[in-house]
Description:
Blueprint (H helix, E strand, L loop, with lengths): L2 E9 L10 H14 L2 E10 L11 H14 L3 E4 L5 H10 L3 E3 L1 H12 L3 H15 L27 H35 L4 E6 L5 H9 L16 E6 L5 E6 L9 H6 L1 H9 L2 E7 L5 H14 L7 E6 L6 H12 L11 E3 L8 H11 L5 E9 L3 H10 L1 E8 L2 E9 H6 L9
Parallel strand pairs: 1-2, 1-3, 3-4, 5-7, 5-8, 8-9, 9-10
Antiparallel strand pairs: 6-7, 11-13, 12-13
The structure holds guanosine-5'-triphosphate and magnesium ion (MG).
Amino acid sequence: MHAKSLRARGRGAGRNLVDLNSEQSLAEFRELVVSAGGAVAAELIQRRPRADPATLVGSGKVEEIAGVAASRDADLVLFDHDLSPTQLRNLEAALPCRVLDRTQLILDIFARHARTREGQLQVELAQLEYLLPRLTGRGKSMSQLGGGIGTRGPGETQLETDRRRIQRRIDQLKRDLESVRRTRKQQRQRREAVPVPTVALVGYTNAGKSTLFNALTGAQVLSSARMFATLDPKLRALELPSRRKILLSDTVGFIRNLPHTLVTSFRATLEEVQQAEVLIHVRDAAAACATEQKAQVEKVLGELEVLAKPRIEALNKIDLLDEEERAALVARAHSGPREKSAHGAAVALSALTGEGLDNLLHAVDEALHSDPVIDAELRVPQQEGAALAAIEAGAIVRARQYEGNLVRLSVSGPASLLGRMRRFRVRAG
Ligand SMILES: Nc1nc2c(ncn2[C@@H]2O[C@H](COP(=O)(O)OP(=O)(O)OP(=O)(O)O)[C@@H](O)[C@H]2O)c(=O)[nH]1
Ligand SMILES: [Mg+2]
């Protein structure tokens, strides 16, 4: 679906933004529009010390936008800012086409990318909760229910019926979500009965989390140049160099100014982050605004109360850097033996070429404290086939000696596995 859209940006002071310069911010918003299937017809910027409470931008600007929208035959005016219900109502009345704000645009993209039933329920709920106080009476916003960014909805006389219908749907969605969550909770409890630590990939949208997830697990999760390609959590087992097993989880990307309502509605993904023992913060080392992106991600991690967890920075996309930038980054990542930030290591890598992935896995091994790796001397009768197979499969055998019908092994492996082999342990001394 292609909607010709017009983007206008209003900037109010006093918002707690991590300030990107306007060009970067505009570029990011443009990508969001394209990710939603829109084509940009024109761009307008307004700077003002304070947002206009009635229309966000000033009245002169509203007229200008109306003129440009009409002359370019735009279907949609998008604001890179959130609009209050009043602002949305007034702008819709003053402009010749539909109006969407930043949150609605992101919700629209989320709606396209939700794959699981839970993801779809969450997106629909977030859309309706956002929409309800913003029903305009002109009926234009109702088209949101279709999920498209260019369609029109029922007329004004429908307003009250619509409100009641939406409220009923919201109640139903909440009940459905509750039951989906109960099921998921049972699945998690079953998983926790066999404790395998979870490591979660987190990071800004488009940083390369899914590409890295695929590279590490050999899975085929959709990775895409469009933003928010991953909405539903993906989980897959992985073996570390120490031979300990972990579950790696791919998660939804963060973005600056992601509305808090959205963060909470994506509990499914974020629960994986909260359950994780170690976080891998995937960063696009080649991004123009890498520092701002990092600040945004850490802000969301703070809101999730997970900043105390061990965290590894995966400085991704080094294949895009020139020799000099690359050397600087690699030196920073490996100074030490490895640069330790407050909570963990930094590793330079490319999910695309595979360079540096080994270093990342070693860093995960170092950061993982549950089920520590221990060394042991074992003496196992050769007829204990199952035990020998388990050791071969789950630990690193450093030396092997045959003593009659016994095998003497020097091994290093997860404490959980070697604990089960306690009866074969050779007493020290
Ligand atoms: N050159 C280069 N491109 C990469 C690398 N890793 C990922 N990409 C590209 O970056 C884009 C985004 O990758 P994804 O893996 O979908 O990013 P993501 O973090 O999962 O994004 P969301 O799921 O939208 O949050 C894709 O076009 C990838 O091909 C890398 O190491 N080098
Ligand atoms: Mg992804």
